[in-house]
Specification:
20% strand; DNA-binding; 4-stranded antiparallel sheet; Rossmann fold; 9 helices; Arc Repressor Mutant, subunit A; alpha/beta; 13 strands; 246 residues
Length: 246
Protein backbone atom coordinates (compact mmCIF):
# COMPACT_ATOMS: atom_id res chain seq x y z
CA UNK A 1 0.00 0.00 0.00
CA UNK A 2 1.17 3.53 -0.71
CA UNK A 3 0.40 6.25 1.80
CA UNK A 4 0.71 10.04 1.63
CA UNK A 5 1.65 11.57 4.99
CA UNK A 6 1.20 15.34 5.43
CA UNK A 7 3.12 16.26 8.60
CA UNK A 8 5.52 19.18 9.11
CA UNK A 9 7.06 17.95 12.37
CA UNK A 10 9.97 15.89 11.11
CA UNK A 11 10.32 13.87 14.31
CA UNK A 12 6.65 12.87 14.24
CA UNK A 13 6.80 12.22 10.49
CA UNK A 14 9.84 10.00 10.93
CA UNK A 15 8.08 8.02 13.66
CA UNK A 16 4.90 7.53 11.63
CA UNK A 17 6.93 6.61 8.58
CA UNK A 18 8.72 3.90 10.59
CA UNK A 19 5.41 2.53 11.94
CA UNK A 20 3.86 2.29 8.48
CA UNK A 21 6.96 0.82 6.88
CA UNK A 22 6.89 -1.91 9.52
CA UNK A 23 3.46 -2.76 8.11
CA UNK A 24 4.93 -2.94 4.59
CA UNK A 25 3.54 0.39 3.46
CA UNK A 26 5.37 2.79 1.16
CA UNK A 27 5.18 6.34 2.53
CA UNK A 28 5.59 9.73 0.82
CA UNK A 29 6.00 12.65 3.22
CA UNK A 30 4.76 16.18 2.54
CA UNK A 31 5.74 18.98 4.94
CA UNK A 32 3.20 21.51 3.65
CA UNK A 33 -0.37 21.50 2.42
CA UNK A 34 0.72 22.67 -1.02
CA UNK A 35 3.17 19.77 -1.33
CA UNK A 36 0.48 17.32 -0.22
CA UNK A 37 -1.88 18.65 -2.90
CA UNK A 38 0.73 18.22 -5.62
CA UNK A 39 1.61 14.68 -4.56
CA UNK A 40 -2.08 13.75 -4.34
CA UNK A 41 -2.46 14.83 -7.97
CA UNK A 42 0.61 12.90 -9.14
CA UNK A 43 0.13 9.53 -7.46
CA UNK A 44 -2.68 7.09 -6.80
CA UNK A 45 -2.53 6.69 -3.02
CA UNK A 46 -4.31 3.99 -1.05
CA UNK A 47 -4.78 6.46 1.81
CA UNK A 48 -3.76 9.92 3.03
CA UNK A 49 -2.75 10.77 6.61
CA UNK A 50 -3.30 14.50 7.16
CA UNK A 51 -2.14 16.55 10.15
CA UNK A 52 -4.52 19.37 11.09
CA UNK A 53 -1.82 22.00 11.64
CA UNK A 54 0.46 22.64 8.66
CA UNK A 55 2.78 25.64 8.12
CA UNK A 56 0.77 26.99 5.16
CA UNK A 57 -2.73 26.43 6.55
CA UNK A 58 -5.05 23.96 8.20
CA UNK A 59 -5.34 20.36 7.13
CA UNK A 60 -9.10 20.81 6.89
CA UNK A 61 -8.63 23.15 3.93
CA UNK A 62 -6.20 20.76 2.26
CA UNK A 63 -8.72 17.93 2.58
CA UNK A 64 -11.44 20.10 0.99
CA UNK A 65 -9.14 20.97 -1.92
CA UNK A 66 -8.18 17.32 -2.41
CA UNK A 67 -11.85 16.35 -2.52
CA UNK A 68 -12.52 19.20 -4.95
CA UNK A 69 -10.21 17.45 -7.43
CA UNK A 70 -12.46 14.34 -7.18
CA UNK A 71 -9.72 12.43 -5.40
CA UNK A 72 -11.52 9.75 -3.38
CA UNK A 73 -8.53 8.31 -1.52
CA UNK A 74 -9.53 7.63 2.11
CA UNK A 75 -8.19 10.31 4.49
CA UNK A 76 -7.27 9.93 8.15
CA UNK A 77 -6.77 13.19 10.04
CA UNK A 78 -4.33 13.55 12.95
CA UNK A 79 -4.59 16.25 15.58
CA UNK A 80 -3.73 17.04 19.19
CA UNK A 81 -7.26 18.44 19.49
CA UNK A 82 -9.63 16.01 21.16
CA UNK A 83 -12.76 18.17 21.16
CA UNK A 84 -15.75 16.69 19.36
CA UNK A 85 -16.08 19.85 17.28
CA UNK A 86 -12.60 19.36 15.81
CA UNK A 87 -13.47 15.80 14.79
CA UNK A 88 -16.77 16.90 13.29
CA UNK A 89 -14.99 19.63 11.31
CA UNK A 90 -12.55 17.10 9.88
CA UNK A 91 -15.28 14.66 8.86
CA UNK A 92 -17.35 17.44 7.30
CA UNK A 93 -14.31 18.58 5.30
CA UNK A 94 -14.20 15.16 3.65
CA UNK A 95 -12.01 13.04 5.93
CA UNK A 96 -12.97 9.42 6.60
CA UNK A 97 -11.57 9.12 10.10
CA UNK A 98 -9.97 11.20 12.86
CA UNK A 99 -7.28 10.15 15.34
CA UNK A 100 -6.10 12.28 18.25
CA UNK A 101 -2.44 12.59 19.25
CA UNK A 102 -0.80 10.90 21.03
CA UNK A 103 -2.08 7.68 19.49
CA UNK A 104 -1.35 3.98 19.78
CA UNK A 105 0.77 2.66 16.92
CA UNK A 106 -1.39 -0.42 16.35
CA UNK A 107 -4.53 1.73 16.34
CA UNK A 108 -3.09 3.95 13.60
CA UNK A 109 -2.33 0.95 11.39
CA UNK A 110 -5.69 -0.68 12.16
CA UNK A 111 -7.62 2.49 11.32
CA UNK A 112 -5.72 2.88 8.04
CA UNK A 113 -6.44 -0.71 7.08
CA UNK A 114 -10.11 -0.20 7.93
CA UNK A 115 -10.64 2.93 5.82
CA UNK A 116 -8.68 1.43 2.92
CA UNK A 117 -10.75 -1.78 3.06
CA UNK A 118 -14.00 0.14 3.10
CA UNK A 119 -12.90 2.31 0.17
CA UNK A 120 -12.31 -0.87 -1.88
CA UNK A 121 -15.64 -2.44 -0.93
CA UNK A 122 -14.42 -4.83 1.78
CA UNK A 123 -15.91 -4.86 5.27
CA UNK A 124 -13.62 -7.43 6.91
CA UNK A 125 -9.86 -7.82 7.32
CA UNK A 126 -10.07 -11.30 5.75
CA UNK A 127 -10.52 -10.80 2.02
CA UNK A 128 -11.51 -13.81 -0.08
CA UNK A 129 -11.24 -13.96 -3.86
CA UNK A 130 -11.15 -17.08 -6.00
CA UNK A 131 -10.29 -19.47 -3.18
CA UNK A 132 -7.53 -17.25 -1.80
CA UNK A 133 -7.92 -15.59 1.59
CA UNK A 134 -5.83 -12.54 2.47
CA UNK A 135 -5.73 -11.77 6.18
CA UNK A 136 -4.69 -8.12 6.31
CA UNK A 137 -4.44 -8.10 10.10
CA UNK A 138 -2.12 -11.12 10.23
CA UNK A 139 -0.55 -10.19 6.88
CA UNK A 140 -0.76 -13.72 5.54
CA UNK A 141 -2.28 -15.51 2.56
CA UNK A 142 -4.26 -18.72 2.98
CA UNK A 143 -5.58 -21.36 0.62
CA UNK A 144 -7.88 -23.91 2.25
CA UNK A 145 -6.75 -22.44 5.60
CA UNK A 146 -3.12 -23.36 4.87
CA UNK A 147 -0.61 -20.47 4.69
CA UNK A 148 1.09 -19.73 1.37
CA UNK A 149 4.72 -18.61 1.93
CA UNK A 150 5.18 -15.30 0.11
CA UNK A 151 7.99 -12.77 0.13
CA UNK A 152 7.16 -9.19 1.11
CA UNK A 153 7.11 -8.11 -2.55
CA UNK A 154 4.91 -11.02 -3.61
CA UNK A 155 2.48 -10.27 -0.78
CA UNK A 156 2.38 -6.56 -1.72
CA UNK A 157 1.62 -7.41 -5.35
CA UNK A 158 -1.19 -9.82 -4.46
CA UNK A 159 -2.57 -7.35 -1.91
CA UNK A 160 -2.74 -4.61 -4.54
CA UNK A 161 -4.41 -6.93 -7.06
CA UNK A 162 -7.00 -8.17 -4.55
CA UNK A 163 -7.75 -4.73 -3.12
CA UNK A 164 -8.30 -3.43 -6.66
CA UNK A 165 -10.01 -6.52 -8.01
CA UNK A 166 -11.58 -6.01 -11.40
CA UNK A 167 -9.07 -3.32 -12.40
CA UNK A 168 -6.17 -3.84 -14.79
CA UNK A 169 -2.91 -2.78 -13.09
CA UNK A 170 0.12 -1.82 -15.14
CA UNK A 171 3.71 -2.57 -14.25
CA UNK A 172 4.09 1.11 -13.38
CA UNK A 173 1.27 0.75 -10.83
CA UNK A 174 3.17 -2.06 -9.13
CA UNK A 175 6.50 -0.22 -9.21
CA UNK A 176 4.90 2.85 -7.61
CA UNK A 177 3.48 0.81 -4.76
CA UNK A 178 6.52 -1.40 -4.24
CA UNK A 179 9.23 1.24 -4.45
CA UNK A 180 7.54 4.64 -4.29
CA UNK A 181 9.72 6.09 -7.05
CA UNK A 182 12.95 5.35 -5.15
CA UNK A 183 15.56 3.10 -6.81
CA UNK A 184 12.95 1.49 -9.05
CA UNK A 185 14.29 -1.53 -10.99
CA UNK A 186 13.40 -2.37 -14.58
CA UNK A 187 9.68 -2.98 -15.04
CA UNK A 188 10.41 -6.56 -16.17
CA UNK A 189 10.95 -7.44 -12.50
CA UNK A 190 7.16 -7.31 -12.08
CA UNK A 191 6.79 -10.16 -14.59
CA UNK A 192 9.25 -12.17 -12.48
CA UNK A 193 7.33 -11.48 -9.26
CA UNK A 194 4.01 -12.38 -10.92
CA UNK A 195 5.46 -15.62 -12.30
CA UNK A 196 6.75 -16.71 -8.88
CA UNK A 197 3.48 -15.69 -7.22
CA UNK A 198 1.45 -17.73 -9.71
CA UNK A 199 3.64 -20.79 -9.13
CA UNK A 200 3.21 -20.59 -5.36
CA UNK A 201 -0.56 -20.20 -5.67
CA UNK A 202 -0.70 -23.11 -8.15
CA UNK A 203 1.17 -25.36 -5.72
CA UNK A 204 -1.40 -24.37 -3.08
CA UNK A 205 -4.24 -25.30 -5.46
CA UNK A 206 -5.16 -22.00 -7.13
CA UNK A 207 -3.93 -21.59 -10.69
CA UNK A 208 -6.26 -19.09 -12.36
CA UNK A 209 -6.50 -16.14 -9.98
CA UNK A 210 -4.17 -13.66 -11.69
CA UNK A 211 -5.05 -12.88 -15.28
CA UNK A 212 -2.94 -11.18 -17.94
CA UNK A 213 -4.32 -8.42 -20.13
CA UNK A 214 -1.77 -8.34 -22.93
CA UNK A 215 -0.11 -4.99 -23.44
CA UNK A 216 -1.78 -3.52 -20.35
CA UNK A 217 -0.96 -5.48 -17.22
CA UNK A 218 -2.49 -7.90 -14.73
CA UNK A 219 -5.89 -8.34 -13.11
CA UNK A 220 -7.69 -10.28 -10.40
CA UNK A 221 -11.38 -10.68 -11.14
CA UNK A 222 -14.15 -11.29 -8.62
CA UNK A 223 -14.67 -14.69 -10.23
CA UNK A 224 -11.54 -16.09 -11.91
CA UNK A 225 -12.10 -17.00 -15.53
CA UNK A 226 -12.77 -20.69 -16.06
CA UNK A 227 -10.78 -22.71 -18.53
CA UNK A 228 -12.37 -22.57 -22.00
CA UNK A 229 -14.72 -25.46 -22.75
CA UNK A 230 -15.06 -27.11 -26.13
CA UNK A 231 -18.51 -27.32 -27.71
CA UNK A 232 -20.30 -30.65 -27.17
CA UNK A 233 -19.78 -31.75 -30.78
CA UNK A 234 -16.08 -31.05 -30.58
CA UNK A 235 -15.77 -33.03 -27.33
CA UNK A 236 -17.55 -36.01 -28.93
CA UNK A 237 -15.33 -35.86 -32.03
CA UNK A 238 -12.18 -35.77 -29.92
CA UNK A 239 -13.36 -38.71 -27.79
CA UNK A 240 -14.10 -40.74 -30.96
CA UNK A 241 -10.63 -39.98 -32.36
CA UNK A 242 -8.96 -41.03 -29.11
CA UNK A 243 -10.96 -44.27 -29.06
CA UNK A 244 -9.80 -45.14 -32.64
CA UNK A 245 -6.18 -44.55 -31.68
CA UNK A 246 -6.59 -46.81 -28.64
Amino acid sequence: MRILLAEDDRTIAKGINFILQQSRMVVDIAETGAEALELAKLYDYDAIVMDVMLPDGEGYDVVRRIRATRNNAPILMLSAQTRAQAKIKGLQAGADDYLAKPFDQEELVARLHAIIRRSKGFSHSRLEVGGVVMDLAAREVLVKESPVPLTSKEYAILELLVMRRGAVLSKENFLDHLYGGIDEPDSKIIDVFICKLRKKLAVAGVDSLIGTVWGRGYIVRDTPAAAPRLPTAAVAARALAEARVA
